[in-house]
């Protein structure tokens, strides 16, 4: 069977991670690093619950709101009807998490489920259920993930596509989806702060 030389570019022979375009890889790593509080290389259960605590603390939430936050983040780690995140959460290496997010990016059902997560996250931050976030409220997201404060305003203005000075639920969720799927090198979307170099 020597009639066909091995193709070094055969996708099946190349680890999936090497096929990910640099920009996408940087964005995915930026997300995962924002969640990986204990810096052991991946975002696990403890990291997710730590994120919940940070939302509660930064948002100065009352007991009822805090309970909602805990429940929401705990659910992210459970296998519910269809929770694509559970596949990403329940692996224990950075490369598996990167591949999980990479696959979710090109899977409409997974993208939709991820969108639901960000709808819920929006509602957590929008504690008074006004349907929009002011800049100060948006900072709860930004500061909960301890992102570089110098970029908060820029990202707020990026998300606020209709430029009314407020972020609607739709704008927030669309910005997150754009962050995952936009492969344009010029994109200004910094949903999880400045992109990490690696
Ligand atoms: Ca971790
Ligand atoms: Ca707006």
From TrEMBL:
Q: Which SUPFAM superfamilies does this chain map to?
A: EF-hand
Q: Mind telling me what this protein is named? A: Uncharacterized protein
Domain of life from the UniProt record: Eukaryota
Gene3D superfamilies, sorted: EF-hand
Q: Which CDD domains does the entry mention? A: EFh
GO MF annotation, one? calcium ion binding
The protein's matches in Pfam families, at most eight in alphabetical order, are given as: EF-hand_5 (PF13202)
Q: Which organism is it from?
A: Owenia fusiformis
Mind telling me which InterPro entries this protein's record contains?
Answer: EF-hand-dom_pair, EF_Hand_1_Ca_BS, EF_hand_dom
């Amino acid at each position: 069977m020597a009639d066909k030389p091995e193709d070094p570019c055969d996708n099946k022979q190349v680890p999936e991670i090497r096929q990910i375009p640099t920009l996408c890889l940087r964005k995915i790593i930026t997300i995962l690093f924002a969640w990986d509080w204990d810096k052991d290389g991946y975002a696990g259960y403890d990291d997710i619950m730590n994120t919940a605590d940070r939302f509660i603390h930064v948002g100065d939430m009352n007991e009822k709101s805090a309970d909602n936050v805990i429940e929401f983040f705990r659910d992210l780690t459970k296998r519910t009807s269809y929770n694509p995140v559970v596949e990403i959460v329940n692996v224990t290496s950075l490369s598996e998490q990167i591949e999980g997010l990479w696959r979710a990016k090109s899977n409409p059902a997974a993208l939709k489920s991820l969108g639901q997560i960000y709808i819920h996250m929006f509602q957590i931050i929008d504690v008074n259920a006004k349907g929009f976030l002011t800049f100060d409220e948006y900072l709860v997201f930004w500061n909960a993930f301890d992102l570089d404060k110098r970029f908060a305003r820029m990202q707020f203005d990026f998300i606020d596509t209709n430029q009314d000075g407020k972020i609607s639920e739709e704008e927030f969720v669309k910005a997150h989806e754009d962050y995952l799927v936009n492969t344009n090198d010029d994109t200004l979307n910094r949903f999880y702060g400045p992109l990490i170099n690696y």
